[in-house]
Amino acid sequence: MPTIDGDQLLAILSALANPHRLRIIAALSAGGRNYVSQLARDLGISRPLLHLHLQKLEHAGLVTSRLELSHDGKALNYFEAASFAVALTPGTIAEAARSLTINPEK
């Protein structure tokens, strides 16, 4: 398992600390890739709200996106869950903390 630095760990934990984002990861993991409009309908949330959550998940490296053209020429932004594994142990947290560049006191 690759080492995750402190900033990456914070981004991942922050991204997963929201019920909508957990549901998005679950939906993409179970159903495979999906485009924004369909995923919004499946989850029962608005597209703008979904897009904000997807941006946070993508920034953390938990989902990936790819813009594709449909048969009728519409641009569809497809998202899928990225392959990831995060081991949360006291040791991995201590190691990640040593590499933090984000200072909460500033």
Quick one: overall form?
Answer: elongated
SS content category = alpha+beta
Number of contiguous helices: 5
Helix percent reads: 40-55%
Strand line-up in the sheet with most strands: 1-3-2
Q: Would you state the CATH class? A: Mainly Alpha
Flag low-confidence runs: none
The overall pLDDT, averaged over residues, is 91
Architecture, CATH level 2? Orthogonal Bundle
Radius of gyration: 16 Å
CA-to-CA gap between the ends? Answer: 32 Å
Strand percentage lies at 15-25%
Q: Write the CATH homologous superfamily.
A: Winged helix-like DNA-binding domain superfamily/Winged helix DNA-binding domain
What would the CATH topology be?
Arc Repressor Mutant, subunit A
Helix and strand succession?
HHEHHEEH
Indicate how many domains the architecture comprises: 1
Main β sheet profile? 3 strands, antiparallel
| Total number of strands | 3
Keywords: DNA-binding, Transcription, Transcription regulation
InterPro entries: ArsR-like_HTH, HTH_ArsR_DNA-bd_dom, HTH_MetalResp_TranReg, WH-like_DNA-bd_sf, WH_DNA-bd_sf
Protein name: Helix-turn-helix transcriptional regulator
Domain HTH arsR-type: 1-96
